[in-house]
Amino acid sequence: MKKISANILEGKFEHLVDEENLQITHLQIKKGEEVPSHKSDKNVVVVIYKGKVNFTGENGKEIIIPGDIITMDPDEMHSLEALEDSDLMVIKARI
Q: For residues 88 and 50, what is the distance between their CA atoms, to the nearest angstrom?
């Protein structure tokens, strides 16, 4: 077992785990900030645990709030816009 703790950030990101087949990133975005359209070569799981985010994917837009989870296949284009100060965990894995 290994415990990893996220830090309190000021609108940044940090890789909590950064391995060849697994990356776990703590993402903090302030209200009004955007993460431009991009994609990953891995499967992606996005878990929001604070705030509200407008998440745009290839199949449309979803407003996500704590308790929501987004899953994506490799190479899916997506972008985010924070509607409130928000904290997310982004898990990327080759499965």
A: 7
pLDDT tens readout for residues 23-71: 999 999 999 999 999 999 999 999 999 999 999 999 899 999 999 999 9
Task: Identify the burial level of 75 via C-beta atoms within 10 angstroms of its C-beta, where 0-12 means exposed, 13-18 middle and 19 or more buried.
Answer: exposed
Task: Count CB atoms within 10 A of the CB of residue 88.
Answer: 24
Q: Taking 90 as the threshold, does the pLDDT of residue 3 lie above it? A: no
Query: Whole-angstrom Cα distance, residue 7 to residue 65?
Result: 20
5 vs 94, which has greater pLDDT? Answer: 94
Measured CA to CA, the distance from residue 33 to residue 48 in angstroms comes to 15
